[in-house]
Design a protein that fits this description.
Layout (H helix, E strand, L loop, with lengths): L2 H9 L18 H10 L9 H6 L3 H4 L2 H17 L6 H8 L11 H6 L3 H16 L6 H7 L7
């Protein structure tokens, strides 16, 4: 099955977050408001590749629910039009590499992903490695069935 279809099927049925549940900023900062406004009311398929490249920081600002819902849009965008140095694969990979800075929301984000969704993300990361997007070894380890977060 083609990778795009694997991603689409894995994330079918993920509920769209409410308009007031897109970003997780307790300070209501300008960047979070901008991201929330951009994604508010839009389906995961409602963005161009160029739009997603310019707002890849949204992956860091999303609530766990918004991250779960919009992640496939970022994945599909970069599968279709990967360019060397593309920021989307790096931004995605970063969110599956457990770091001290991400300790607070990492387990919650991981808990939202089903085994099928984790497998689709792993296949995406392997595919992007093959395109030259960099090593995803640590991220794949965190997504694997053997991970403490599975």
């Amino acid at each position: 099955m083609p990778l795009k279809q694997i991603i689409e099927q894995a994330f079918t049925g993920v509920p769209q977050p409410a308009d007031d549940n897109i970003t997780r900023c307790p300070y209501n900062c300008a960047e979070c408001r901008r991201i929330a406004e951009l994604f508010k009311g839009k389906t995961s398929g409602g963005f161009s590749v160029e739009e997603l490249r310019t707002v890849h920081v949204a992956l860091s600002l999303f609530t766990p629910e918004a991250f779960h819902y919009y992640l496939p849009a970022f994945m599909l965008a970069s599968v279709d039009s990967y360019e060397k140095g593309d920021v989307i694969p790096d931004a995605i990979r970063f969110h599956f590499e457990y770091s001290h800075e991400a300790q607070g929301h990492f387990p919650l984000r991981m808990s939202k992903l089903s085994p099928v969704q984790r497998k689709a993300i792993i296949e995406y990361l392997v595919f992007m490695e093959g395109k030259g997007a960099g090593s995803s070894e640590h991220a794949i380890g965190m997504l694997s069935e053997e991970s403490a977060y599975a």
